[in-house]
What we know:
This protein has helices spanning 8-22, 26-42, 49-64, 71-94, 98-108, 125-134, 141-150, 163-171, 194-199, 225-233, 241-248, 264-270, 283-290; strands spanning 154-157, 179-183, 207-210, 236-240, 255-260, 277-281. By secondary structure, the protein is an alpha/beta fold. The protein has 2 domains: 5-64, no CATH class; 71-290, 3-Layer(aba) Sandwich (Rossmann fold). It is globular, with a radius of gyration of 18 Å.
Amino acid sequence: MKTFFDCIPCFVRQALDAARRATDDEAIHEEVLRATLRACAEMDMCTSPPAMGYTIHRFVRDRVGGGDPYRAMKDESNRLALGLYPGLKARVDESPNPLETAVRLAIAGNIIDVAVKADVAEVNVDEAIDHALSCPFDADIGEFAAAVSQAGSILYLADNAGEIVFDRLLIERLPLERVTLGVRGAPVINDATRADAEAAGLTGLVDIIDSGIDVPGTVLDLCSDAFRRRFYDAGLIIAKGQGNYETLSEANQDIFFALKAKCPVIARDIGCAVGDLVLRRSNHVAAARGKGGQSAGV
Length: 298
């Protein structure tokens, strides 16, 4: 997905939030803000929004030193989600359609996103869960279940810390021996890394691979060779969150995008309303089917 004009204010807000988390020095805040504005003025609008996120957060870290300014809030998000996990797992187990319930709850976790809301305290997770379990859901769960059953291997691309605990509810409903979990290669915003996969209890369930890069999405040209091989060898990819949609919406792979549409730009690109739960198969698969073709993993 390309970058739209409406993305620019979000870049500026994210830059200032990251700078303020990293240091109290207002001179550095101003420097980061001015550098971000210059980068926005010069950026290629045909690149995806996470490519600019990569530039912004790299600049913040280079200016104020190493470390992860979002680590404390990621730990808070994981603790919050782990506290909810036993009750949510029971709801999945007791559901007449456990796979659909697990998908809905995994998407509910997508509300934990400081790229949209800067403070976890502002996120009403209970409300998101109730909405996810009761709202209309424009998804073909039967198609998704068939794709999962037929895929020789599945790559599940995580999105955020905290949310990754909700992902566990869905991952546990997949054939674990065929699943690899993909996380970010290094800290960026509140995106999930290996540390968050471990906190969520996933390191003992499935193989883990990281992207090799600190991008808030999956920009394949920047990812490690090992990650790209796993990506292209996967029979099916489940991509969580807006960042993965923004970077992979045009990828020539069999992908199910699972997210909550939290901004008008994403909603318009997908063709849904803001707030909708989305489980959408990649466009090239639909196009192939329309021509009578069949894609890999189907």
